[in-house]
Amino acid sequence: MLEKAPRIAVDAMGGxxxxxxxxxxxVQAAREGINITLVGDEEILRGELAxxxxxxxxPIDIRHASQVVEMEEKPSDAxxxxxxxxxxxxxxxxxxxLADGVVSAxxxxxSVACGMFVLGRIKxxxxxxxxxxxxxxxxxxVLLDVGANVDSKPFHLAQFGLMGDVLARDVxxxxxxxxxxxxxxxxxxxxxxxxxxxxxxxxxxxLNFVGNVEGRDIFTGDLDVAVCDGFVGxxxxxxxxxxxxxxGRVLKRELKRHMLSRMGAALSMRSLKNFAQMMDYAEYxxxxxxxxxxxxxxxxxxSNIKAVTNATRMAATFxxxxxxxxxxxxxxxxxxLGQFSRHKAS
Length: 346
Hints:
Helices cover 45% and strands 16% of the residues. By secondary structure, it is of the alpha/beta class. The chain has 2 domains: 155 residues, Isopropylmalate Dehydrogenase, CATH 3.40.718.10; 156 residues, Isopropylmalate Dehydrogenase. Strand 5 and strand 6 form a beta hairpin. Helix 1 crosses helix 11, helix 4 packs parallel to helix 5 and helix 6 crosses helix 12. The longest helix has 26 residues. The relative contact order is 0.16.
């Protein structure tokens, strides 16, 4: 790339709302100095840009894509039948060196599939993992996998630990991340057979592995990386999001119930706003798909402008800090984990 600032390809058609969210988010990121390529229906995208003052002076390009992967479509069907979909074109731009990373709030399965088959995996990685950055009582924590792999082998979980370690170092700035394995008890013998075998593998790495952790440990802030398979991780993530929203609604209702509580709420408004901000998933934008040769950030389908903007910032940070290169080096240092294959593991 000749440009000093990262260029991020934004799947402008993806998500529940599509260009009406993705274009303003991309404009905000461009105002902060990030080069943007909007991918999607050119006529629609130019119309959205025309509605935003000053957008024509920003470092924003458009790459036309004639197709869109709908949220309910099967990823395999979309890959075969929609070669010119916005997510495939965005990934192809990175593969050809015309962009440095991809952000998409579209069909997550299609995004993962395009990441694997268009961008390609780092040597030694059999299954990339979606990593979510979650708030805690102290500093944010990395939870992975949160949905890319619903059936994982023990060595997959060990690789997830290595990936999470790199993410915590390069993006969250943790010097020596504490890595825990999510299980049903803290004792070494707890968990199913997959977790028990993964425990033994993680002990053999050079990670700061702290052993098994329970679900309640995620939000204490005493952990930096929590490892699990995508089935467990996705439930954990969605449960956390739902709990935060329900807690916010209940708190708001109770604060309005009586005059004294309304007065107390007025006096505590700053603290309440800080709490709401901390629990807002949009603060962290999206989930990076770790283990690919390039950067792909997968956002929630219902992402708002703030979430997509933050996801674009995260993608640019990955590029600037060369996080994928560090991940490749980290996995190469543990080459024994790359000796497995699906055939050998069966």
